[in-house]
Amino acid sequence: MLSFNHVQFGYKEQLIFRDLTFHLSQGEFVFVIGKSGAGKSTLMQMVYMNILPDSGSVDIDKFSSSTIKPKLLPELRRKLGIVFQDFKLLTDRNIYDNLAFILEATGTQKKIIKQKINDVLTDVGLSHRRYSMPNELSGGEQQRVAIARAMVKEPILILADEPTGNLDPETSEEILELIKRIHNRGTSVLITTHDYELVKKTDAKIIRLENGVATESKI
What we know:
The protein is 33% helix and 26% strand. By secondary structure, it is α/β, with parallel strands linked by helices. The chain folds into 2 domains: 2-79 and 155-216, Rossmann fold (3-Layer(aba) Sandwich), CATH 3.40.50; 90-146, no CATH class. The strands form 2 sheets. A 6-stranded mixed beta sheet has the order 6-7-8-3-9-10. The chain has a 4-stranded antiparallel beta sheet with strand order 2-1-4-5, covered by helices on one side. Helix 3 crosses helix 4 and helix 5 runs parallel beside helix 6 (169-184). It is globular, with a radius of gyration of 17 Å.
């Protein structure tokens, strides 16, 4: 479902990836680990093609970085659920409207929007906070909303870039358990993290980024 094929990429004189190759299969759960500056966030941006390789290719579903046209990027991104470390919720609207915004952008009917939002907020245990503003929620609750926002599109792949980076250890475990439940339903998951304690608690493939390449690893 997702392949990095001999990807090379750098910023000016700094080489980030020199020969990055790895694959993620349908239904797989993969952690990407590595030191600060190893390219974890760059890798994530390459999946949703905000950044394109200098050489090699990133292929996901029917899309390839080597051939994709700008007009097809929205179609690709509708297939992905993206969870950021800093939540990226819209602060001027309540939780329901944060989720509705995603579906309205794709022309989903209002009655379907309501049902989908009810379903995902129930899944993350926040149906009672649907009309709360983001600043009224704790960090853990905001990340649950971010996960609900990622899931409301019914994506083929969840991308989570340091999803527990701003959370305390107990809340981090809760967020990880939530992502595991989503994965158990069949959704593929790719997580970047520096929290090796969380990685140890999950039966998942581990990819280590180091010296511009990817290798399967153990903690």
